[in-house]
Write a structure and sequence with these properties.
The protein has about 350 residues and is mainly β. It has two domains: about 90 residues, Double Stranded RNA Binding Domain, CATH 3.30.160.100; about 170 residues, Beta Barrel (Porin), CATH 2.40.160. About 10% of the residues lie in helices and about 50% in strands. The chain has three helices and 14 strands. The strands form three sheets. Strands 5-6-7-8-9-10-11-14 form an eight-stranded antiparallel barrel. It has a four-stranded mixed beta sheet with strand order 1-2-3-4, covered by helices on one side. A hairpin with a 7-residue loop joins β7 and β8. α1 crosses α3. The protein starts with about 30 loop residues before the first strand and ends with a strand. About 30% of the residues are buried.
């Protein structure tokens, strides 16, 4: 499943200007390396956003520094790194993380502008001026010794825990159920997951409702149609590996199974309660910050195996197996909030 993170950006909402940087723009004189994923602002966009924030006099002269900008994607966020290189000096590195590539790029523009501003450069060391020593005053009587006091112990404040992130998802799945007759249907679900920013495994709760249809053809009865309608509650955990999310869940399935023998002269409809344990494994991949695709496999184990019989003469129309297999494929919408 994929997830969406809401967060603030430095300096509010800023808009990049498209197009190539002008040759006479101050930023065009910089030794600037730039690399960013597809969909991010280009190097020309970076220079176009930097030029209004600097003066031409800042980049003229013997400034030999180089600026290397690198942006990469990490999960649903972006990480930007600025390395300022200068001959015979260790590199100066700054890094920032943000929810969007545009916000990270704009922050790096501000970092470069601050580095170029002469007002922020370290001042040259001024020669030390020794003040004149005043004439020695006459010796004064020694004050009485101060009473001894124990230093006050200050408690270090505990580190702030990382913020809790809630992930809400909902989706619809196409269902294949082997009952053992092949049956087809659909299922809708909602899911809530609680995690911290650096967690790899997080607990989750899932609710769903769905149905599946299949049919049998017992002797002297024609076609008998069946529909299984159930609501399901599941608890489990998900493991997150970048855009890929794996999950394992245990749950309870409750509902009804209805059989209809419409081909008999005397129309018969039979309804039986359905209760079962479920065990599921799921795998999803994020295709966008708010959208994911998911596959699942589920074993369904009924408490009691419903059995359907027809009368006159008595004959069996269907008996549920001890274990049913359910497979799903679906699409999921995802939202993340703190």
């Amino acid at each position: 499943m994929c997830a969406l993170v809401f967060g603030g950006t430095l300096g509010g909402t800023l808009v990049f200007q498209s197009g190539e940087a002008r040759a006479d723009a101050p930023a065009a004189e910089l030794h600037l390396g730039y690399e960013a994923p597809a969909g991010c602002p280009t190097r020309s966009d970076f220079l176009a956003a930097l030029s209004p924030r600097i003066q031409a006099s800042w980049v003229e002269g013997a400034d030999t520094r180089s600026f290397d900008v690198r942006i990469r994607r990490e999960g649903n966020a972006f990480v930007g790194r600025l390395v300022i290189g200068e001959p015979d000096q260790p590199p100066n590195t700054r890094e920032i993380r943000g929810a969007t590539c545009k916000a990270v790029t704009m922050s790096l523009v501000v970092f470069v502008a601050i580095a170029l501003d002469p007002a922020t450069a370290p001042r040259a060391e001024e020669p030390e001026v020794k003040p004149q020593e005043p004439a020695e005053p006459p010796p004064s009587p020694l004050p009485p010794p101060a009473p001894r006091t124990r230093p006050r112990k200050t408690r270090a404040s505990p580190p702030r825990p990382p913020p809790v992130i809630w992930t809400w998802s909902s989706g619809v799945d196409a269902v294949y159920l082997r009952a053992p007759e092949p049956s087809w249907g659909a299922r809708v679900h909602i899911e809530l997951m609680r995690s911290h920013e650096l967690d790899r495994i997080a607990p989750a709760l899932r609710l769903s409702w769905g149905w599946a249809d299949f049919s049998t053809r017992p002797e002297q009865a024609g076609k008998v149609s069946f529909r299984l309608k159930t609501a399901r509650i599941e608890a489990g955990a998900r493991a997150m590996f970048g855009p890929v999310r794996l999950g394992a869940f245990l749950g309870f399935d409750g509902g009804t199974m209805t059989g209809v023998a419409a081909d008999l002269p005397r129309f018969e409809e039979i309804r039986e309660p359905w209760r079962a344990w479920t065990g599921s494994v799921r795998a999803g991949v994020s295709v966008a910050p708010w959208l994911a695709l998911e596959l699942s496999g589920t074993l369904v184990m009924p408490f009691e195996r419903p059995r359907f019989e027809l009368q006159e003469p008595v004959r069996s129309a269907y008996k549920a197996p001890a274990v049913l297999f359910e497979g799903t494929a679906g699409i999921v919408a995802v939202a993340r909030f703190q």
